[in-house]
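worker-3 :: picked SWIM-type domain-containing protein
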Amino acid sequence: MISIDEDFIAAAAPNAAAAKNGRGLVLKNKFIALHHSDDNSLLFGECQGSGKTPYLCSADFTNPESVTYRCSCPSRQFPCKHSLGLLYAYVEGKSFTPGEVPEALQEKREKAAARAEKKKEDATKPRKVNKSALAKKIKAQLDGLDLLEKLTFDLVRLGIGNMNAKSAREIEKQAKQLGNAYLPGAQSALHDYTKLFFDEDEVKTTASQEAAYSEALDQLGRLHSLVKQGRSYLHTRLDDPELAPETESSIAAWLGHAWQLRELKDAGLVQTKVELVQLAFNSYDDVARREWVDTGTWMNLSTGAIQLTQNYRPYSAAKHIKAEDSCFKIVQVSELCVYPGDVNPRIRWEGMIMRALEEKDFQKICSFAHDSFADVIKQVKNQLKAPLADKLPVYALNFDRIGRVGNDLVVQDTQGQRLVLTEKGLAEEPSTCNLLPLLPSSHLAKQTLIARFRHDLDTRKLQVKPLSIVTSTSIDRLTY
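worker-3 :: tokens ->
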């Protein structure tokens, strides 16, 4: 059985309340029996609930990367508070005695093993494409792109200077049709434009208006490219239904393709035996799409790539979807699926094992970081040339020091190259520059900065927003 501690339980819990309630069961001595199987792959016990019959709960470690929790209680949370309490009882040193696995529980374990075996077999079978359904969907998407093109032309004819909150909301109403046309990515791109004009009552300075206009012009270029590239891609797929979704770019995702793990594996977008360390975390409420989004920023310790996890929890189903949280340990993954994308692609995995951070991990993070700002600036500029590329990429930078030059807070490399620090990045991210003075002065010299690049469209210069600082012994997170 793998090592279990409080961090392990917190990561397994669907929410903080479930973890708190699970610990409460132990404090109240609600467990009347605690056992483990002969091979130590299963913890199980009985917990007294509100009824006469105690609940049978268990934690099955047959697959250490994906622990299975079961309980006879009616809760729809997995794991429920009883299974979490079972783990807390183990961590707190309660006595677990060897016991015969109950028949009902053993049957479930056998059925789970059979399903896992069948899943492996199914993974080797070739997938069949429903050509008629695919053709119907593509035609609907093409009609949606026609609408997006019309709306984009309407916006150009109206002019950026004539846009206001009222016209933005009118465009938003029409944009709802893009969701019905299987184009959620296009709908989101259009929203990125219209939201620039929603704050009608806000008194804007000339500088802030010009900044909004510059951003709006950039967004119009993105919408035009989305229509052009999307139409070409969809026509190609319509001509050849057997053609797999595009993996060399993110156009499929822009058009709303929801990648399945099986597809990513079939396309060869998978890495084995990977270790990851989380460098930053942010959770926000996307009101426009009516969902909560949990985003983790990770470094792949096998390659040094900075990659993202994104967990979407629609309002309508949020209570049934586990919220992601900050992770302060090394995550070991046997199979890591990497989505098509740019410098910071999305990643996903099905199971993991965690271990504590060690000195070698901090050293590895720093070894993968860029020593020369000039080299990174060149990479970022090349990235920004593509209209559909991520405009706010994250890089790791080894720096000489962070300090003030005049009114600007800057970071400098060993060659004297400087980048101005900014609070502007993703709109959903909290402020971070204001936290830097709270760090020890030693953490602001000769360390590694995890930073989000931003191109200021008015000054035409690159700026960076600090996300965390990595030292030889710690990761100082500014967003978590």
